[in-house]
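Onboarding guide, step 5: your first structure request.
Type a short instruction followed by the sequence, for example:

Predict the 3D structure of this protein.
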Amino acid sequence: MSSLVQRLQPLAWLKRLKRGAADGEDLPIRDWTGPAGGSQAPRILGFDSALVWCIVALLSLGLVMVYSASVALPDSPKYKLYSPTFFLSRHALSLAIAFVAALVVVQLPIKLWERAAPWLFVASLVLLVLVLIPGLGKGVNGARRWLPLGVMNFQPSELAKLAMAMYAASYMVRKMEVKERFLKAVWPMAVALAVIGVLLLAEPDMGAFVVIAAVALGILFLGGVNGRMFAVSVAMLLGAMVMMIVTNPWRLQRALAFTDPFDPQYSAGKGYQLSHSLIAFGRGELTGQGLGGSVEKLHYLPEAHTDFLLAVIGEELGFIGVACVILAFFWLTRRIFVIGRQAVVLDRVFAGLMVQGIGIWIGGQTLINMGVNLGALPTKGLTLPLLSYGGSAILMNLVALAIVVRVDIENRSLMRGGRE
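The system replies with structure tokens like these:
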């Protein structure tokens, strides 16, 4: 345990908070444990309000931009039966469902999630199998990734991201004594990752696999796995991804197109989305064309309300708007990691590793989506967390962030001498 804390190098003020709670020092944090002095469960009021307001701000911007990016879609023959507010109302419904789910999740103690982690991972695997069965899974644009549930189409890969964060954290807690031994510490996780990778690539959904692999490897590293073993694991994973791209003509064309999307051989094909995304950013300049002033969303930029929402933000709100979004995600990710490190200092290894895994998920997926929109990475089908249209993505994002808030609540309770 001590080696793990040293590896993470927690901030000095976190150490002081833990020491102050033990010595009875009057800390600058309100006591949320109730009048019984720790005999009650932590109250919901003791949370990081800045974190919550940052999330609310991003969700609000996403709601506005999804409407702006989708309002003209009914002019296309593909969406001629849809109303101009169809995607807005669906997105608002998803936000309402996700908000209710988050309120329920924030009430649940983290120990419950620790016990359920292996079973949640198994459930995600089962759902990934079900989505591949004709008649059960729903296919869109050549990919079979959704299970129709009436009010929304659920994407099992979104659940798999959270399940991997929990399972990897639980796994490292159980394997803490053998973390230096490859066969006992890394190999079983590699097998689990390979299974989930095969299922995701069968959909296909390589973008989700990249995020899940990053979460798993990140938690292994933070959990204290031997550096050489970690480097070998990363090298093997990168080699496998390169092979998957080289051996698949469709993926290879996408990888080549992003190097020069305006090349005539790519501009009307695999480089079409990226070329119009870059045009949108160029039109936005410093202050943008104004809200609703995007031209690229008028059937030039495909999937403008999902994968390429940042391009619409860039065109309408300009560099200033995009910079604000980047700073908000940077602060959000950093704050999630601080909460995770704080949990580790308080000897809550599972909670700490799980929260940092969620931070890798949110931060990593944001980085990939922005890189794709800006032409720094090959085009992948990944949404921008909290902003893009997508019911199951919004749902699982808010559930994961509700768990982060719950960990923060329990951290605050423990620092005042209460209980989890």
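Each response can be followed by summary notes, for example: Residues 2-21+44-415 form one domain.
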